[in-house]
Structure prediction request, 389 residues.
Amino acid sequence: MNDNNNQSVQNEELEQSNQNKSAIKKIAFFLGSLGIIGAGYFSYDHFYGSKFENTENAYVNANQNIITSQIPGTISEISIMDTQNVGVGFKAIKLETIDYQIALDRAKNDLARAVRSVKSLEINQNQNEENVQSKIIDFNKAKSDFIRDQKAYEQQVISKEQFDGSKHKFEQSKIGLDTAKIGLKNSQVLALSNNIQEHPDVSKAINFYKQAYIDYSRTIISVPSDGVVAKKSVYVGQRISPNQPLFTVIDTNNEWVDANFKESQIEKIQIGQKVELYSDVNKKTYQGYVVGIGAGSGSALSLLPAQNATGNWIKVVQRVPVRINILKESIKQNGSLPIGTSIHAKVVLEERHQIDNNKSQVIEFSYNEEKLKEEIQNIISENIKVELE
Prediction:
């Protein structure tokens, strides 16, 4: 009986020992696994993870060109609709032109009238110059006759009446010459310039014509950049005023990403570093580079900055906006992205992109200046010829 009890106790001790060994093995395995995982994480973070900074708090953005009219008018034609792709210079909206055509014709007539008036002043100046020359001849003749008659009167060859008549003609010729010189001076002041376009009256008329010409050209509202139409808010027959928003063009060929990194990540991020951008829209990866780091955190730059001067303050990790340009080649290859969509941004800390210091292309929309100059010159030339004829 005792042998059986001893055997049972030995079996229990053996089983307990086996259990302890099993538990020790499990703990050792668990600790070893933690060590391997820790070593793996450390290795990943040191050799790979430390080379990148990631955030999913990033969104696509682009220039939103709000198109307005520079003149009031009534819409007569619309050639766009929301979501439509348009190119630079596309004629999107036309306004009724009748009022502006009348103003342009009136300005043209005023310019023609000013040219003829100034040309008449020039002709009058020439006539006054000839008149002065004629008066000089008359004055010289009257002076010569007066000197001769004075000597003859002193010698009592002619009567006093004849002498007085000669003296009177001399005085009258002098007055006539002075009057002619004054007339010439006045005509010279009125004519003022050798270049007719520099004359005040003509210059004023030219400016009015330019304004009328420009206003007429603005009856066509064109698109300033390639992109997609959005927020169209006007219709045919609607009366619009200057600076009223008509529609918006999203420039999808020049997109960027606004990525918000934690303040603890900003230290390693620098301008020029390459960035891999993964889009949630099309599951494609775009290439970009850092072009700017915000001067303040998002909360500091918000409309109502946070006030932390309270007793129950809790530290919150702030985020700083970083602007990342998307390479145009990448956009052409993978397609444009809708603005506001989410992006996963991964900054490659050890790789840099060669930044192009050239300015972005500036697109200017204005009247045809060369054609306007040609129109003005034609009006002037035509009316000078008419005056000469």
About this structure: The chain has three domains: 2-40, 52-94+220-300+314-352, 98-207+366-388. Residues 52-94+220-300+314-352 form a domain with the OB fold (Dihydrolipoamide Acetyltransferase, E2P) fold (CATH 2.40.50.100).
